[in-house]
Amino acid sequence: MSTQNVVPKSPFERMASGEYKFPPQKQYTQPGKEYLMNPPPQYSSPDYKPSNKLQGKGQEDIDARDTLEIIRKAKSADAKDPMAIAVDLGYEQNCKSVIDQVVNAYGSIDVLVNNAAVQFQSDSLDEIDDKRLDMHMKEGSSIINSTSVVAYQGFATLVDYASTKGAIVGFTRSLALQLVSKGIRVNGVAPGPIWTPLQVASLTVEQIVVFGSDVTAMKRAGQPIEVAPSYVFLASNQCSSYITGQVLHPNGHASLYAHTYKICVFNFTIKS
């Protein structure tokens, strides 16, 4: 039997089949395993076409439902009724639609978190196409942009991801200067390796097995609940009213720099 045309199983398929067991995590379900994309999108295929909605069967409905349930349990009695909108933010018209719906429901946006992202591994710049590169607030509001430790470390097979995350750092600092006169703070969060479905969607199974253990002083990947307080802190005027243009680093002490440089100082005496 020829194996030349056999397409390797994706991480989603290998997890679903039970082929690989993951190390114990601090959560009841393994990352990405509870809501598998079915069928999994074949991002590497030259015929892959993104749809104008989230991928997978009912994934957007499940995410919206679960998010609403969490917020309803956590909200105070006097807080307005929450809403969750399932939409692909990779399209400009969808972004505008979300803004309109939120403003119509609540009158304004007090805190904006830019957290949409994807990552793909590539061994060459030639594999990165244009599609992968083009991816109502008042005084006292807060904008929080999600960047990544990869923006500071670099990553050989994530050139486009690292570059765009680095651009977000510069964007955050520059936008903070632009909006400071309006009383709007702009900050960022650069998480280290965190267990989310994004990792399962983009890394190999072999990489996932050791994910976070080989690049952090804490020898493990973080959990979303360990990153969330950074966003809450930056969103709160009570906690961070004097902070703007900054980036928080919840990363388990991941090394931010690949190299350490030694500086040698020489004393010279010049004789005439």
TrEMBL record:
Matching Gene3D superfamilies: NAD(P)-binding Rossmann-like Domain
Any one GO molecular-function label of the UniProt entry: oxidoreductase activity, acting on CH-OH group of donors
Alphabetical UniProt keywords: Oxidoreductase
Protein name per its UniProtKB record: Uncharacterized protein
InterPro entries noted in UniProt: NAD(P)-bd_dom_sf, Sc_DH/Rdtase_CS, SDR_fam
Pfam families listed in its UniProt record: adh_short, adh_short_C2
Top-level division of the source organism's lineage: Eukaryota
Family designation: Belongs to the short-chain dehydrogenases/reductases (SDR) family.
Region entry Disordered, spans: 1-60
